[in-house]
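If you are new to this repository, start here. Below is one unmodified record pulled from the training split, so you can see the exact layout before writing a loader.
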Amino acid sequence: MRLRELSPGEMSDDQKGIYAESVAGKRGTVVPPLRAWIHAPDMARHASRLGAFLRYDTTLGPRLSELAILVTARHWSAQFEWYAHKKMALAAGLDPNIIDAINHRHVPDFNDEKAQVVYEFSESLHENHTVPKLLYDKAIELLGETGTVELVGLLGYYSLVSMTLNTFEMGLPEGEVSDLVP
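And here is the target side for that same chain:
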């Protein structure tokens, strides 16, 4: 990692509290972006709490959330994000063929309308910086207002995560490889 990783002995009391909160939370560990964010404790605190909500508690559920996260990881070519969330997506029941299509920048075949709208919405927002009215209306119909707002939150948060991972060159765990194609 480009930033110096802080040991607990180098952390302020505020940083130690954020670190402990992360370990005690649903993640059970300090995720890689937090290793960078801890240098800005207020940001780390808020980003970590937002991330925990978006990762575990939205109305979208794990399969649709992981789909949006993988589209985001692919958009940013974030190796660590892809590595970590591909496993989670498979565990959540996302079809491996959909994951492979996203990896190779192909449009996946969906047999689920909600998954298709999450994919199309995510792609549109990342690539075009907007969502056309028909797609927006379809998202509202299938995901509801809450789900649509949460989807935008997921895409924004995981863009922040991906930018953090890429900027600070946060690599994969020792001996691990990512299959994310260039």
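Two things worth knowing about this chain: The chain has a mean pLDDT of 94. The two ends are 20 Å apart (CA to CA).
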